[in-house]
Each structure stands twice: as structure tokens, then as C-alpha cells.
Amino acid sequence: MTPDVLEAVPTVLPLVVGLFGLLVGSFLNVVVWRVPRGQSVVHPPSACPACGHRIRARDNVPVVSWLVLRGRCRDCGAPISARYPAVELATGLLFALAAWFTGPAWILPGLLYLVAISVALALIDIDVRRLPDAIVLPSYPVALVLLTLASANPGGDPDWGALGRALVGGVILLAVYAVTWFVYPPGMGLGDVKLAGVLGLYLGWFGWGSLAVGWFAAYLIGGLFSVGLMIAGRAGRKSRIPFGPWMLLGAGVGVFVGETVWGAYLGLL
Ligand SMILES: [Zn+2]
Prior knowledge:
The termini are far apart. This protein has two domains: 1-103, no CATH class; 105-269, no CATH class. It has helices spanning 3-34, 64-68, 83-102, 107-128, 133-152, 160-183, 190-206, 208-231, 244-268. It contains nine helices and no strands. Bound molecules: zinc ion.
């Protein structure tokens, strides 16, 4: 590549990856609806839940179609939830953020996979209070393959220390959540425990600071939210608030700013 092309990469890459994220977000809407119902995510093609008409390709363009159709089915006029374009937009922005954060690096595919499952799992947990095995369990081998690729770093120097940290991080987070679940079962679902290992793999790969901050941030953000809900009178002490979204959000904080926050924290001591 010429230097001009290389200089354009920092701007072009997030843009291209962000557009790809819009399409992934569209697919995640299907995943979030179908996986908890035990349906295939590829067959049959999407149809309007109200009238059953198949969604035409031109009405399936992320965000744009919803705006053009003004949030209504072309055939029967039934309203289409604003959540669909919101999920597409959020996924696109998170993909762009991930690409901006890593630049053209081999960790990018792994990070995009984490973003995608995080969006899907957070929404499913909010909808049905479950983190389906169908997404969480295959994420172990997928994460291991993608993190191994990132550590091998083809064309550059490998970083096998990062892969070692990932394995230790996965075991630590899995063990910590398993103990918490065993000691106080009502506080946490078994699905949270299974997810913890996947998040530990990622957080460990990014660094010990990421692991510490990602783990702690889940409790901090989740705790603040619960207190906020109680103050607003929207939840009692016994209300069941799903913990999965906070684990995922905490992991995101750990990945993106964990090392910085951890460094600042150690600097204070
Ligand atoms: Zn319809």
C-alpha cells in the first residue's frame, strides 16, 4: 500500500466496519427474536409478524427502510418497532468504535464477534431473562480461535503471552462467578456463570487491568442502576433485574478503557 492509502486507513476502516455493523445489527434483530424461541436464524426468510408477508429485499436495508416506510409494514401498515433500527444503528456505531480502537489489527474480528454476541445476549436477557446456551456455549471455541489468531498476529510478532492471559482470565472469571452462584444462587443465573468464562477470555487477552476493571465494572454499573431504580420507585429490593447486560457492559468498559483506568488506579496507590 502507498503511504496515502495507509494514512486513510484510520478513517476508512471504522466507516467500512461501521456499515458492515449495520448489516450485522439487522441479523441480530433476527437472532434476538428467534433464538429464544428455538427457531432457525437462517430459515424461513423474515416476514411481517402481523400479516405474514415476506419482507422484500429493498425493505430490508438497515435503518433506511424503517425510515422510508415510516415504521410501518408495506403490506398491512402494522407498526414496526423502533427498536429494530435502533439495534442496527447501535451495532453499527459499536463496530465503528471497535475498528477505531484496534485499527487494522488481527484482534478486530475477535472484538467484533464479542460486540455482536453482547448486543444479542443483552437484548435476549432483557426480553426473556435468559442467556441461551445456543449463543454462549459456541462462543468458547469461536473466541479461542479468534483470540489465537490475534495472538499469532500473522505478518507481525506473535504475542502468546496474551493468549496465556486469556486462558487464565477465562478460568478466573468462570470460577469467581461459579462460587458466587454456589454461595448465593438467587443473586445470579447459571447462564451468567457460563457467560463469565467467555468474557474472562477476552478481558484476559486485553490485559490484567482489563480483567480487573471489566469484572468490577459489571457490579458497579449494575449496582448503581439497581439503586437508581429503587430510588425512582420502579423496583423493590426483591425485584429480579437481569445481570447479563451489566456483565456485558462491564466487559466493554474493561476492553476499551480497562488498561487506562487500571494504570491510573495503580498510580494513585
Ligand atoms: Zn404486514
